[in-house]
Amino acid sequence: MLQQILIYNGKVGNNINIGYKEFNNDSARIAFSNNVEYDLSDSKVIRYKGAELEIIKVTNQFIEYKVYSNFNMI
């Protein structure tokens, strides 16, 4: 079973940094990871691998969001 997670890593200005990790077969070892940056002045909606979230409120230590769709099934 594939587990996919997004991790909020903070913000600089209007940009937020989100980490993505995949774990395979209930293993503690990371199968894949990536970091992406989103400019919230362009849009408050972010997408990654099928997941779609609206960013409602964000500070350097806190993020409030609404999930519109989950990750694509693999």
What's the topology here?
Elements: E1 2-12, E2 15-24, E3 30-39, E4 45-48, E5 51-58, E6 63-69
Antiparallel strand pairs: 1-2, 2-3, 4-5, 5-6
Protein architecture, described:
By secondary structure, this protein is mostly beta strands. It has one domain. Helix content is 0%, strand content 68%. The chain contains no helices and 6 strands. It has strands spanning 2-12, 15-24, 30-39, 45-48, 51-58, 63-69. A hairpin with a 2-residue loop joins β1 (2-12) and β2 (15-24). The protein is globular. The termini are close together.
Pick out its properties:
mainly beta; 74 residues; 6 strands; 68% strand; three-stranded antiparallel beta sheet; single chain; 0% helix
Q: What does the main sheet amount to?
A: 3 strands, antiparallel
Summed up, the helix count is 0
Please count the beta strands (DSSP E, at least 2 residues each). 6
CA(first)-CA(last) distance: 9 Å
Number of domains: 1
Provide the low-confidence segments as ranges: none
Helix content: under 10%
The strands making up the biggest β-sheet line up spatially as 1-2-3
Query: What is the string of helix and strand elements?
Result: EEEEEE
Proportion of residues in extended strands: over 45%
Helix vs. strand class: mainly beta
Overall geometric form: globular
Backbone CA Rg:
13 Å
Q: Name the average pLDDT.
A: 93
